[in-house]
Write a structure and sequence with these properties.
CATH topology: Four Helix Bundle (Hemerythrin (Met), subunit A)
CATH architecture: Up-down Bundle
Number of domains: 1
CATH superfamily: dinb family like domain
Largest sheet: 2 strands, antiparallel
Helix content: 55-70%
Radius of gyration: 17 Å
Oligomer: single chain
């Protein structure tokens, strides 16, 4: 079954959203002290790492969207709580679903401009397709990091692989019996 690149991107973002729910569920079973403990990772806490991924999704999706969506207004006077992260996740996933629904094959060639200083030492124009695949890579990178940190505290990480998800949603079929 051949699919277009746009269909593949939409599927990957649906899969990532489902996997992210697994992390929020795992986090909800942890004491606040575990969620807020500095682990010396790419970002200090489990919630900070997850929040960083949310920030990347938000930043890049605003550039990919053909519509404006309002910025999030986080309370930066305190570390994020699980409730804050859940609220942000609902908002971001709502915007991503809209971007994915409105995205066309032609949009994949459009460019997103990134100014110097916004996570990069240089200014550049990046095609939407490359931004979206970058977000998949970013998500997988930080998911692996979260898995390792959860395993260090003897917590089963919510490993949810693509093939398992694709079978569940009917994207991949079992072969016909011989």
């Amino acid at each position: 079954m051949m699919t277009s690149e746009l269909e593949a991107i939409r599927a990957w973002f649906a899969y990532l959203a489902e996997a992210r729910r697994g992390y929020l569920e795992a986090f909800s079973k942890l004491p606040v002290a575990e969620l807020s403990r500095d682990r010396g990772a790419s970002f200090p806490t489990l919630l900070d790492i997850f929040g960083h991924s949310q920030g990347a999704l938000y930043f890049w999706m605003t550039g990919c969207a053909r519509f404006a969506f309002p910025p999030q207004e986080p309370d930066t006077s305190r570390p994020p709580s699980l409730a804050d992260v859940r609220k942000d996740e609902n908002y971001i996933q709502t915007q991503i679903r809209r971007v994915m629904a409105e995205l066309t094959e032609e949009d994949l060639a459009r460019v997103v401009h990134r100014k110097a200083g916004e996570g990069s030492p240089h200014e550049c124009d990046i095609p939407v397709r490359e931004v979206l695949w970058h977000l998949v890579e970013e998500e997988l990178q930080h998911r692996g990091e979260l898995n390792a940190l959860l395993w260090q505290i003897d917590v089963d990480a919510p490993v949810y692989d693509w093939v398992h998800w694709a079978h569940q949603v009917g994207r991949i079929q079992h072969p016909a019996p011989k």
